[in-house]
Amino acid sequence: MMQKERTFAMIKPDAVQRGFVGEIMSRFEKKGIKIVAMKLVAVDRKLAEKHYGVHKGKPFFEPTVKYIISSPVVAMVLEGVNVIEMVRAMTGATDPQKAAMGTIRGDYGQFIGRNIIHASDGKDTAQFEINLWFSSDEIASYQRIDEDWLTE
Ligand code: CMP
After folding, report:
1. Rounded CA gap, 116 and 144, in Å?
2. CA distance 45 to 18
3. Cα torsion for 18, 134, 118, 55, to the nearest 10°?
4. Band (2; pLDDT cuts 50, 70, 90)
5. Per-residue pLDDT averaged across 21-27, rounded?
6. Which residues form the domain of 70?
7. Is residue 130 part of a domain?
């Protein structure tokens, strides 16, 4: 039995404003990825600065914080085998100009400072971001009826 893992993803303000929440969630659902937590959040500066803490001091830190607090985001925890890498692959390169067509950023984005979605880039980051955005009682453990068909 392959080990399931969890990752954090956030649909950013531009994508919420442009009405892409359903389309993006639909991609994850169709891929067979399980949503175990999800909420619309009007992000405050403190949370945004913690989330992007590793980028503090970089020139894009302040504009990125401003972008994330400019309008609500949809935060979620996704679960599945190899889900961290899979969601990163579905998300595409950080710069939508360089992201492959067929990826979320490649299909919907144009600028690095308006790049539609965030997804954790590794195991430690995923753990940090899940704990930052969600309390344990906001994360659901449940069985989906298609799970038998999503394993081999
Ligand atoms: P994200 O994957 O959320 O992680 C860091 C974010 O900073 C990135 O997506 C972009 O939204 C933003 N950003 C803006 N400019 C840059 C840059 N030059 N390099 C990396 N990230 C950038």
Report:
1. 28
2. 22
3. 120
4. confident
5. 98
6. 4-135
7. yes
Say if ligand 1 is within 6 A of residue 94 CB.
yes
Residue 150 resides in a domain:
no
Reported as a pLDDT band with limits 50, 70 and 90, residue 48 is very high
Active-site annotation holder among 118, 120, 126, 133: 118
Task: Tell me the one-letter amino acid at 103.
Answer: T
**Residue 118 bears catalytic tag:** yes
Nearest CA to ligand 1 atom 2: 118
Whether 103 is in the pocket of ligand 1, judged by its Cβ within 6 Å, is: no
Q: Does residue 75 form part of some domain?
A: yes
Looking at residue 3, the DSSP 8-state letter turns out to be P
- CATH number of residue 16's parent domain: 3.30.70.141
Number of domains in the chain: 1
Q: How far is the CA of 37 from the centre of ligand 1 (A)?
A: 24
**pTM greater than the 0.85 cutoff:** yes
